[in-house]
Prior knowledge:
2 copies of one chain form a homodimer. In chain A, a hairpin with a 4-residue loop joins β14 and β15. In chain A, the strands form 2 sheets. In chain A, strands 6, 7, 8, 9, 10, 11, 12, 13, 14, 15, 16 and 17 form a 12-stranded mixed β-sheet that branches. Chain A has a 5-stranded parallel β-sheet with strand order 2-1-3-4-5, with helices on both faces. In chain A, 34% of the residues lie in helices and 28% in strands. The first copy, chain A, is an alpha/beta fold. At the A-B interface, α2, α5, β11 and α11 of A face α2, α5, β11 and α11 of B. β11 of chain A pairs antiparallel with β11 of chain B, so a sheet runs across the interface.
Amino acid sequence: MKRLNIAIIGLGNIGSHLFKYLNDNKKILADKNNCQPIVKYVSAKNKNRKRKIKIKKSQWLNNYLDATKLKDVDLIVELIGGSDGAAKKLVFNALKNKKHVVTANKALIAKYGDQLSRIAEKNKVNLEFEASVCGGVPIIRSLKEGLIANKISKIYGIFNGTSNYILSSMDNENKSFQEVLTKAKMLGYAESNPSADLNGDDVSSKLKILSSLCFNSFLNKDIYVEGIKDIDKTDIDNANKLGYKIKLLGFAELLNNKIYQRVHPTLIKKNSYVASIDGVLNAVIVEGKPVGQSIIQGEGAGPAATTSALVSDISSILRGNIKFPFSISSKKRKKIRFEKIDNRPFSAYLRFEVIDKPGVLSNITNIFSKNRVSIKRLVQNPDKNKKSSSIIIVTHNSKDKYLKKIIREISRKGFIKSKPKLIRIDNI
Amino acid sequence: MKRLNIAIIGLGNIGSHLFKYLNDNKKILADKNNCQPIVKYVSAKNKNRKRKIKIKKSQWLNNYLDATKLKDVDLIVELIGGSDGAAKKLVFNALKNKKHVVTANKALIAKYGDQLSRIAEKNKVNLEFEASVCGGVPIIRSLKEGLIANKISKIYGIFNGTSNYILSSMDNENKSFQEVLTKAKMLGYAESNPSADLNGDDVSSKLKILSSLCFNSFLNKDIYVEGIKDIDKTDIDNANKLGYKIKLLGFAELLNNKIYQRVHPTLIKKNSYVASIDGVLNAVIVEGKPVGQSIIQGEGAGPAATTSALVSDISSILRGNIKFPFSISSKKRKKIRFEKIDNRPFSAYLRFEVIDKPGVLSNITNIFSKNRVSIKRLVQNPDKNKKSSSIIIVTHNSKDKYLKKIIREISRKGFIKSKPKLIRIDNI
Lengths: 428, 428
């Protein structure tokens, strides 16, 4: 039986889980793929850290970059993380030295994926990154293989479990953002520094990768990104009253031959499928021809789910199945002009906290009318004690730039008590 | 560029759709798979039938079996249908003559898949059947590749769009089985002879195939199958009152090292994910380690969705990716003893239409108690005009054989007005 020698670089929770899995499942993987995976080497920053796995002395590499040079390494699994530094060095060198690479590093692929795939193709090795997007959800393999026949017009969904956990807990447990975030950290659903999860960057990286796969395009560096940091309980309650849930969604869509990519909190109808996805789950919805709409849902993070994704990539390499990293050769990938969302129409929810005095409402509605944004629904909730009022407006479809302009203009007014809110509505 | 010559045998709606798709998408498929698909030949029963596709004279085979002999055929797409007869002859001969085979024929694979895969493996050709299970839902490729790392403990879901359309329309549109079936035929959601859809056979074939892939076992010939023919509006209404929906589900599950397979109408909680799947959609839920729960949902039938699946199989062959048809070599597939469901415990819904006279209720509850089936909930709805009564019982978990025994015993009683109902409940 053929063998494939693997080096695992990075031995945190995920690396350790994968190490154990590969040792325990050597036989079944060999049976299924006609080639046996051997964990030949490992390396990590801290050699002496306590780990629940048994590493042989001969397996340890003091210098992780040796994995890219050793003749008895065929495949390197990069689990260091981060778009630059050690991870970048490792993956570039590995591919240059004709080693296959499997990585869970969305930041690296979203930033350097185009360059890396060119090197991989030139050297006829695999660069696989199923684990970088939505953990155990086999979305990349589905786009590259199961749904290969389809011309994709739209991909969207819940790509970040931490944000989704926070939003759904604020809603279901009636708690504030801070309370829920503290609990999420305690449960291990949020990292000690959760900024990439909360500011939308994590979703943005995943969306860039998925988008390239869907539209056969190069990675788009410039997409609209807004996280959940500014969502508060009041907005969630208002959304509920209006028949909506708030979810952090990523969207890439083809409209009139232009591709729009965006990440932002979104009001979606309560009875929609996506609204029902609570907690740390991820869900990806793909619309394509001829297949219609497909949904793939599952565990988006954690060592177990990520191992499932890493092993699917490793198995693909065990079977000797060399594919273009982005589904199509770099020479054939398209330079698509991505559109900013400024001219894309949205219906939107806006909230203004104002001093309760005569003329404020007409002042606000005048600004809407001046910008030709028409109002579908307006609710004014006065708070007599504080002499203030909350004005909630749902608009008809209006270009994004006008919605943002309204926010800018009204922000400057003297009657505004706190930063106005704009949350886009999507009729999915 | 390499080329792969294809013969499409069977040119109904699906065959014609695939023919057109392959002609229109030659270039993108070649770009993605590094090999060009050429539709070299076609054949069908009726040469002169009106079709919306342009077939060249040189493409037509008068004898469909010639495809298995011609040197310039690499891959045969079988779209004849039926487990025996022409389809069987074609696929056996094709594999014996070292032609790759792609088929949408669930009946054939469920019946002869074990034999066929042995021939395919011996001759090192592909036998692919993504399109045979749940149309455009890429469940087979996901099990064989995206989720390859997982030890599956359970797979279940909605595998038949026709039945699901009928059940959800009876519920949502408040119509009888017959009314809805007539409408389903009109809309093309049910065939003129829909018996395989309604009696559960279609789901049974799909479940057999999925089950083999999940548990690395040979096909099980003997599974419990019950269709939706006996479900009436009263049961759907009762289910609603009790907080349930009725769905036709297929299940394959590993419990205490035994595999149970079953197809039957099932009461599931209204707020469960599966209960929300209405109309002709299909949904497959997979539980495995390490990934946890995954869900794949999409269009389960129709020429477009089926083409998506067929092309994913064809693409896999274009890439030269020869795999075991059932994920693992026939030599390694396991002879698992499948358990009948007799000893599996179920909570269940039972309905008895009885003559309204003293002693009937105690007679019924005595039979339950004698069979040690304990009652969780009992509702008696008298119909004074008809001097009859409807007795609805929800049981605690009880072995299936006792539930069936109760039905048999009570059926014989003189006070029974119509065939008693037993619908199992699943807490999914």
